[in-house]
Structure formats: structure tokens, C-alpha cells
Write a structure and sequence with these properties.
This protein is mostly helical. 73% of the residues lie in helices and 5% in strands. The chain contains nine helices and three strands. Helix 4 packs parallel to helix 8, helix 5 runs antiparallel to helix 6 and helix 5 packs antiparallel against helix 8. It is globular, with a radius of gyration of 18 Å.
Length: 219
């Protein structure tokens, strides 16, 4: 495999490994051997080490002294901790959009994403559905205009994506649940109803957290 710009080499390696972890091709606690990755991707060992540090920051990998890197484990405590934080970040973004839009055209990007989500759901394309669900957050960034919030969300998205894939692979009907919540959320934001938007996001986040925990229990 050959990697090219615009992303840095380490970032491209990180994305490649992240996709394998998110899709479950690499299992929790599985060791990531630097030499093996170096040879299979035909890249330098230094780039692989840098990629692993990126993945550690994104909560997909843990690097242990004298033991190297391994895929992080999805424990019930980590899942609950992740969703407790993510829900509040989603609420912050929703509030920013509700307060920031001026004309209906400002909300057009969200409607476009909604259509893409519907198309992905009809095709049962989980990869595309998860990607477009995160496009929602990215469309909200300009309204928040908060680089710290954006960086925090971006670093958490791979871990969230991993939980989404885990659930949707076994419960594809949950895509319809997400679409229903998103439609209600758009309506609440259009009405600048902060309390309703928060209620929807908290309920959805807690629902999804419980699904992840249940799915982990089935493995």
C-alpha cells in the first residue's frame, strides 16, 4: 500500500488502523506489532510509532511500558464514561446551532445530511451511515466557533464510531431510530427550543449507551 499527501503519512497510517479497529477487524487487547505494520504498509517504523500516538489520543489504542501498543478495550465503565461526555458535547453543538442560525438556508446542510443518512439506511450501508452521522457534528462546528470543542469532539469520534459500528452490525434497525431522533432534533433547533433539543440528545445518548452495553454482554 502506498500513502500520499495531503494527509501526513502518520495520519494516513492512523486512519488505516483506525478503520480496522472500528470495524472490529482488530480485537480489543490485540497487540499491534510495529514491525509487522511497517512491513505490510511499506512505511518507516517512525511513522508507525507516530500513528500509534495519534490513535492513543483518539482512544483506540493504549501504549503500555515495555509491552507496546494494543487495541483499547471497550469496558462498561469506558462506554458509560464516553457517552456521559459525548452527550454534553452534542448538547453544546446543538445549542450553538439553535442560537446561531439566522435564515432557514443556514440549516440546509443538515437537511442534505439527513437525506444522505436516509439513503445510507435504505442501502443498509453502515459505514456510510456512521460517516454521515458525524457530518452532522462537523456541520455544527462553524456555529460554535470553538476550536477546543471541535478538537475534543474530533478526538472522540473514532471511539464513538467504534461503538456505533458495534451496535449497528447487530441491530440495523437502530438506523431508523437515529433518523427519527435527528428529524425531531432538527425541528427543535429550527424552533430554538433548547430544552427539547437537550432532552432528545440525552435520551438518544442514554439509549445508545445501553445498546452498546447490551451488545458487549452478548459477545
Amino acid at each position: 500500500m502506498t500513502f500520499k499527501a495531503p494527509d501526513s503519512l502518520a495520519e494516513q497510517i492512523a486512519q488505516y488502523l483506525a478503520e480496522r479497529i472500528i470495524r472490529g477487524e482488530m480485537q480489543a487487547n490485540e497487540r499491534i506489532q510495529e514491525q509487522k505494520v511497517t512491513q505490510s504498509l511499506n512505511v518507516s517504523r517512525g511513522s508507525v510509532r507516530e500513528a500509534l500516538l495519534i490513535l492513543e489520543r483518539r482512544h483506540l489504542v493504549v501504549i503500555l511500558p515495555r509491552r507496546g501498543a494494543q487495541v483499547s478495550e471497550l469496558t462498561p465503565h469506558r462506554v458509560r464514561s464516553l457517552y456521559a461526555l459525548v452527550i454534553e458535547l452534542y448538547v453544546l453543538l446543538a445549542r450553538a446551532v439553535a442560537e446561531g442560525w439566522r435564515v432557514k438556508a443556514d440549516l440546509a446542510p443538515f437537511v442534505t445530511i439527513q437525506q444522505r443518512l436516509q439513503d445510507s439506511q435504505q442501502r443498509e450501508d453502515i459505514d456510510a451511515f456512521v460517516k454521515h452521522s458525524f457530518d452532522v457534528m462537523r456541520a455544527a462546528y462553524p456555529f460554535a466557533d470553538n476550536p477546543y470543542l471541535q478538537e475534543t469532539v474530533e478526538n472522540l469520534l473514532p471511539a464513538i464510531s467504534r461503538t456505533y459500528h458495534l451496535v449497528l452490525e447487530r441491530r440495523r434497525g437502530e438506523m431508523a431510530q437515529y433518523l427519527g431522533t435527528f428529524a425531531q432534533l432538527l425541528q427543535a433547533i429550527g424552533e430554538r427550543d433548547h430544552a427539547r433539543a437537550r432532552e432528545l440528545l440525552v435520551r438518544y445518548g442514554e439509549h445508545n449507551c445501553q445498546l452498546v452495553l447490551a451488545t458487549l454482554g452478548e459477545r
